Amino acid sequence: MSTARSIIPIQADTPKVPTFDYFTTKKDELVGWARKFSLFPYPFVTACCGMEFMSVSSTLYDTDRFGAALPRFTPRQADLLMVVGTVTHKQAPALLRVYEQMCEPKWVMAFGVCATSGGFYNNYAVLQGIDKIIPVDIYVPGCPPRPETVIDAIMQLQERIGNAHHPILKGDF
Amino acid sequence: MDANLPERIRSRLTPEAPTLVVSHGMPVVELAPAQLSAAVRALRDEFGFDMLLDVTAVDWPGQALRFEVVYHLYSTRDFVRLRLKTRVAEADPVVDSLVPLYGSAAFMERECHDMFGIRFRGNDDLRPILLYEGFAGHPLRKDYPKLQEQPLVPYREA
């Protein structure tokens, strides 16, 4: 049985380019570069800011361009917790539980003025800013924030991640 | 709204409901807590008010009968709304439950119990619905401190 199938060579017959066989960099810069462009957000969406989150995630503004697009709906696969909207005292245990389930390294964005400070809700029900219970890396003001504000926050966070120390084992390395 | 409706309601509920006014086109009935169940049953069965829209309360601090429990009824047949008010004292804020008449009363009475501490005789399930277990006090009472928080998660060190 003979087949006249054309065979695609596994190794393309291209001339070797000797200029890019290896490069040198710093470990922190390499890891930071990898991490800052692969942010997996977990959207903890509780209120009307969620509409703005949808807007900034989808085509017109498209956080995918910044490597921060694919929402993971389990905190165990996410490294950026976006708290989008008002958090009440009744919800606070759920938020803390989500945060605790995320693996290191993890970052937290307070999206909108309610998550930042409670916003104009100052009463028996509303947590006055999520930084009362979990550490926050970046705050996005606005009610709701403009999509440009959110993109700026993502870029600032990426800048910070890129310049940070990223311990791989522990301690200094 | 049928122009005779307030008068018909007034004559049907007399003498139990001495005051009936029309406020912004809506009949408003004020009655004593003891008359509530019978009056609502009459309104539902004879006047077609087949939907209970809301149960809430108003706090009038300093008045002898401090709490005013407010009900809103609606007739899906005649497209008419009606408001019912009854007053209870702070020492014993109890009114009859409307659960036997309207199933929707169960959750709304729970909310009213959360927020104002009104107890509804006959509603066996007055667990917190919007608040959480362990919340002390009733936040929509006028004497609840405006800025008092009762966090469930301990705050981080600043």
The backbone outline of chain A, from C-alpha atoms, is elongated
How many helices of chain B? The count is 3
Largest sheet of chain A: 4 strands, parallel
Estimate nothing, just give the exact number of structural domains of chain A.
1
Instruction: Give the N-terminus to C-terminus distance of chain B in angstroms.
Output: 60 Å
**DSSP summary: helix tally of chain A:** 5
Topology:
The complex is a heterodimer of chains A (173) and B (158).
Chain A: H1 27-36, E1 41-45, H2 49-57, E2 80-84, H3 92-101, E3 107-111, H4 113-117, E4 138-140, H5 147-162
Parallel strand pairs in A: 1-2, 2-3, 3-4
Helix pairs in contact in A: 1-5, 2-5
Chain B: H1 5-13, E1 19-23, E2 26-31, H2 36-47, E3 51-59, E4 67-75, E5 80-88, E6 94-96, H3 105-116, E7 119-121
Parallel strand pairs in B: 2-5, 6-7
Antiparallel strand pairs in B: 1-2, 3-4, 4-5
Outline of the structure:
The complex is a heterodimer of chains A (173) and B (158). Chain A has 5 helices and 4 strands; from the N terminus they run αβαβαβαβα.
